[in-house]
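dumping this here before i forget
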Amino acid sequence: MTFSIVAVDREEKSVGFAIASCCWDAGQVCMAKAEAGAIASQAQGNLAFLAQFFEELDAGRDLDAILARFRAADPEIASRQLGMVSFAGPAVAYTGRRCTPWAGHDLGEGFAIQGNTLAGPQVVSAMRDAFVETSGALHERLYAALAAGDAAGGDLRGRQSARLAVRRRGAGQPGTDALVDIAIEDHADPVRELGRILGVGKTLLEILGHLRAFSRAAPADKPAVLGALRALLDDKRDGRYLDWWESLGMAYHETGDLDRALEAFQIYLEINPRMQSALEAGVDLGTFPADLARRLFATS
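structure:
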């Protein structure tokens, strides 16, 4: 009732998974941990395997030994399906004989693909081809695999949820290592929706890249950096990008380009006129420049 891929990128030092299912919360059957590995425990998944997997890795056991211990300890193992990867050694997978057909798995360098209750073996083979042939960051390759499996027929029963997560030490919010973590719980086309959100995330990363470049650039180079950011934002005039128009305007003000700062904040207020009161309050708080406020509010 699920198709998934777990994978590591040893050069990027990242690890993650992508999964889709006709069931709610497909991602609950997977787990990834930075600098350790990833596991999928699906079909009649034993979720206790998730935490146990990382305990076994911490104890120094390789993936073949971990799978052997799982098979020996679980009387219902024939109804389970597992895929496991780590940063040491080849990936492993297991498909129990009582998994609903079509069920099977495939292995490659640094990845395991597994699925059950699928439209056919073409789902897994399409995922493998897409993962191997796609270049880029691990999350891009994982998504390519998931989308290919979905296009090849995916879950025989239909679609509801999908999740993609990548962990890398020090990524994301402090303590999370979450480079990417997107879950679509209930959607008519969850894999496509996951891809759309990844696209939004890619744009936000580009914006942040421009702002980081601005902070590091020599004064003479800052206008060019802001010009590139302004071009990127030009067709993004909705609430999702409101804060970035503010960042652009403040950056222009920092360089002394009051005209372009004014234009950025005019667009900011076009997107959300209610923010004028917050900007006005910012003048008194010292968080919004008074010289910019005088020109902005005279024309707003």
